[in-house]
Amino acid sequence: MEDLSELTDAALLHAAANSSDAFGTFYDRHAQAILRFLYRRTDCAETAADLCAETFAAAFVQRRRFRDTGTTARPWLYGIAKNLLGHYLRRQRVSERYRRRIGAGVVALDDEELLRVEELLRVEELADVGPYRHEIRTAIEQLPEGTSDAVVLRIGHDLPYPEVATRLGCSEGAARVRVSRGLARLADLLEER
Question: Which of 102, 127, 149 is the last residue of a domain?
């Protein structure tokens, strides 16, 4: 088996059709630079991470469009990231404009909703968690705001990902990432107790 780290970006993208390891190597090679690029423009780690994930998802889908010029794929990735960032910023401006027009603020969960976490997550249906309710509430409160909102909307309210994305003002892929991260972090927090 050849050493994937020795392959060019073009070769990795070509090999990615049959090898997740090839795309993983490509991701590892460029993710930090793309994440830094997006963070500098959003000043939000969570948004930057979501957009970075979307960038690489788009790169995977569009990998056949990459033109091998004998150089790195980083400028191509920056172009994808820049386009996604532009879409994100336009959605934010449109959302803000409509919220101002109707006099509404940003939708956020309040403390009362977080305190009803067992109801929202329907945990009674899954197990007898009576003794763990406080721990679950505390764990949800420790999640970043966008992540906790995504988990509650998807799991608690059983909303489909497109609806979660609409309510959070992000793409469906970003909503999936937030829910996935949130559930993983909840598991870690609860395991620590």
Answer: 102
